[in-house]
Amino acid sequence: MTQTASPVPVAQNFPVLFPTKLSPLGSLDAYIGAVNRIPVLSVDDEQRLARRFRDGEDLDAARELVHSHLRFVVHVARGYNGYGLGIADLIQEGNIGLMKAVKRFDPDQGVRLVSFAVHWIRAEMHEFILKNWRIVKVATTKAQRKLFFNLRKSKKRLGWMNAEEVRAIAADLKVSEREVREMESRLSGRDIGFDAPDDGDEDGPPSPVAYLATQGEDPSQLYEREDEEGDKLDVLREGLAELDARSRDIIKRRWLDSDNKITLQELADEYGVSAERIRQIEANALKKMRALFVA
After folding, report:
1. Which of 91, 103, 187, 207 is 20 to 30 A from 47 (CA-CA)?
2. End residue of a domain, out of 102, 119, 137
3. Would you say 120 and 144 are in contact if contact means Cβ atoms under 8 Å apart?
């Protein structure tokens, strides 16, 4: 079983802004859907809220900063779903890291909160994974649990078993020989330190924790890219709204309708003008919209 984080203060004078323990079993999808509906902050809003919290200890500002980044914690947690731990546990650990990041965030450093927070979110998740890794991975299947409790007393001697002993134990416990060897290896292994060695030798090999990484794109870059794409979509909608009805229809059908793109001549026939006139209207509309993107 995995450990469950308790809703405790993350630091002195900085109480928990929302319960770190997720809702009852079965509501994880509802939680993820809810946090994805929370608006993403613009750069100006993020800076304003961060200064309100830093300079005046405004917990309402801190709460808004935390809430607007809960979806990012979900992004990071999904990158660790190959370690055999529940994503709900990872999310609530990451939420604690997010609150620690908000407390330490300096808006004058010229970086977005999401780039700063990823270190704290990952740190909390890493600590949770490392505390629970061996418990989770030694025996997970029914056959592994059977071997876990019976293999030691089934062995006749110290040291690694030979092929005959492996076959005998596999037949006795009704498991495969591969599972017997795998469990023997797990039980014979020893825990090693995942953190840096105590001697502080910077020239030594990296500690195992250095290899504990998410899969795929870095979550902070993914989040920032999606945030940027969302801003561009808002600008696109704004630009379309400022066009007249004919120009808006031409742009939508020429550039935004990927399933059924229309030609200049087809639009010309529909509007009763020349294809050149449709091209001119299209060019003027694109020029107006382009000005919004570079503003």
Report:
1. 91
2. 137
3. no
pLDDT of the residue at 69: 92
What are the angstrom distances between the C-alpha of 60 and each of 50, 148, 273?
11, 51, 57
Question: 187 lies in a domain?
Answer: yes
End-to-end, the C-alpha distance of the chain in Å comes to 54
Q: Is residue 3 part of a domain?
A: no
| Cα dihedral 209/29/221/100 (nearest 10) | -60
CA distance 86 to 170: 31
Structure tokens at 188: 């014979």
Which whole number is the average pLDDT over 288-295?
71
Determine contact, residues 68/101, Cβ cutoff 8 Å: no
> Of 137, 152, 175, which closes a domain?
137
pLDDT over 70 percentage in the chain: 63
Q: What is the pTM of this model?
A: 0.47
Give the pLDDT of residue 84. Answer: 67
